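Exercise: predict the structure of this protein bound to histidyl-adenosine monophosphate.
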Amino acid sequence: MDEEINPSKEIFRTPKGMRDILPKEGNSFYRIENACRREARNYNFQKIDFPILENIDLFKKGTGLYTDIVEKQMYSFRTKGNEKLALRPEGTPSVIRAYFQEGMRAWRQPVKLWYMGPFFRHENPQAGRYRQFHQFGFEVLNDGAAVIDAQIIQLFFNLLEGLHLKDLVVEINSIGYPEERAVYQLALVKYLKRHFSQLCPDCQRRIRINPLRVLDCKQLSCQKIVAGAPQIIDYLSNECNNHFKEVLELLEELEIPYDLNPYLVRGLDYYTRTVFEIATVQNKKQDDEDQGKDKELRQTLVGGGRYDRLARSIGGNDMPAVGGAAGVERIIEAMKRAKVKPVYPEKPLVFLAQLGERAKKEALKLIEEFREKGVKVAELLGRDSLKAQLKRADSLGVKYAIIIGRKEAINRTVTLKTMKTGYQTSVDRDKITSVIKKRL
Ligand code: HAM
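Solution:
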């Protein structure tokens, strides 16, 4: 009997920005994880799992003290043992920490790792933006070659295409090394100060602490100012310029379409040289005042880039590295928009119904025998009514029902019913798994 819900009782709900992942969505997760495993095998990446909690300083020093992620969005707390920990907001600093902590320098280089799991950011929840979300990431550690930057972009591009996502755009830029950025920043600040009053209050503050962040402010007023700002590409060294040129040439060679975005800087402090994002773009008909006009709906699915100085900033030796991470929920939403079907688990073709205590025990044993033979069997062992069980068999659309009643349990036989025709026949209990296997 269904339990009644007492309307006066308050039912617990998930915390804001956090969701249950129900079986239907779980199937899409499964499909995405399979795609990751496939690409990991194709490109020789090994799986790493790191803790959900890390020392807070890993992110302060790695992701960057003045990034939105660390400054505003981190779930952090002090433990009973007085450790300062944070729920991981991203994976890249943990991968680098693990490289040094686990002695990966002694492994064959470069070390290529991938991961998938939950991450946490205290953001304002909205479509595609949650407080607990899932990312998968691919990172190549200890390789500075431009070809690896191109290969990482290729991997994510192929993975998304393999999930039948179309209309993908790769945006790419190079932001050089901090030395070059320091000179650029002076020119940028000078320009932004001239337009100070037109910037949003956040950007007015950013000019002082992290002026590059103004470049990817989403406020329209700021974007208008940014459109006339000096471009970082004009401040890069010859080496950085050549590295970038090589990445672009390789992308052309691989026929990966890209857009140069001179103002793409990404919201994390550790990037050097190449930065990129992959988005889906969809034309959405507007429904209100601009009726009829198409509006571009752009959702960033992947973000990444090179981070040659991250190892140094968290206390290791300098080590070139490049990688990226993708948001699983955003990919699922894009798959839904593109009407890509999740993979449904294989449907059972056989239902096992039982009547009486002895038959129930026999049914349990028989399920085990079917499992060993790789045949998926549905049942309703908790119900005693044969009618209810056969009704379930019908609703599941199975091909065959196997019925073990009291008589069958004693005779060591079963009744095999073909659901479509209703035809029933008696089969030896010990032969039923082979009979079914042959028929399927
Ligand atoms: P990120 O751009 O902060 O980069 O995140 C990567 C992706 O995670 C985003 O493009 C988006 O799809 C997803 N994502 C981020 N925040 C949320 C959220 N609140 N809700 C839903 N999805 C979200 C990084 O995290 C870097 N660690 C990427 C990287 C790896 N760079 C080098 N290696």
